[in-house]
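Reviewers of the previous submission asked for a worked example of the structure-prediction workflow described in the proposal, so we include one complete record here. The input consisted solely of the amino acid sequence. No template or homolog information was supplied to the procedure at any stage.
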Amino acid sequence: MALSYKSYDYSPPRSANSSPQNGYLTPLTQDSSPPARYSNIKPVIMASLPDIPDNLTQDLVDADPALKRFQQDLLVLTSFKDNETLHWRPSWFPQGEFATKWWGLQNPPDVVTEWLPAPLYGPQVYTRRMRRPGDPEPLYIKTWEQWREYCGVAGVPEDFLNQRMVELLRLGLPRDARGVHCASGNDSWYPEPNPQGSTSYLLDPSTYGLLPKKFWCIDKGHVIAVHPSGALHVDHIDAFCHDRRQWTRLNGRGEYVADQRYGSHLPMGPKLEGMARKWAWLPWTREQEVSCEPFKLRIKLKGAASGSDGVGNRIYGSDGEGDGRG
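From that input alone, the workflow returned the following structure tokens.
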């Protein structure tokens, strides 16, 4: 059922939920229409950019890079169930004192988490919809007063996951052959970056198979680093042996602190991470998306010997260059 982008005037229920009772999430339904009017109490709204125009279609979203990135940010965040702990924050979230700290993902009172049908043994992916009459009672954020307090503590915009945002993100959800929303069937997953201003971290080789195919096989002695911008870089492992990150650890607030008292017994060498990180079915940032684009083949028409850039891109010798994708 296609989404209808009309102007609905509604207010949240007195006791709206972010997740149903008993630990169960609401199964996905095709009916994603906004709820009926509940009360005259409305939340405090803050401006989040870019603006979401009326009568929106996915073609219009795809034609606007800023709006497309905004939609992908929403899709990444809502692919996790509520009450998950995240380190990454979108650029349109308040930064400052919140930028380097973990934060808990919650729903406003008029939004419900639901799961997307996924392939057998595939990772579970979630989404959000507006609350409807008959939904179970809440587990976490139950009132707008609690929502405002949460936003102030976690540094979350008060209009996060408002109705227009939910409509925008649902517009970008994959659909199966029957036109029903479902989890993405792609084979690539993307690791959560550290906050801006912190350091890169190295992925454990056991996670390379989750990445786009260009990273499945890299040269010996090289590792894949996740930059705070989200970009994935292939570098020689020696570059990280004396990196300051090897002498730091994450404290309980998500901040990097000195590690001498905690890591002196560990062997020297780069720390590898990966499986404990959050992984999303879409790139977390534009920089990550660009770094995961397919191979480029640089052909030099004459000159020196061929080589490799570390990821497996073959480079041949030259005066002129031609680019092709593989």
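Helices lie at 58-62, 65-78, 144-154, 163-171, 260-263, 286-291. We consider this example representative of the routine output the project will generate in years two and three.
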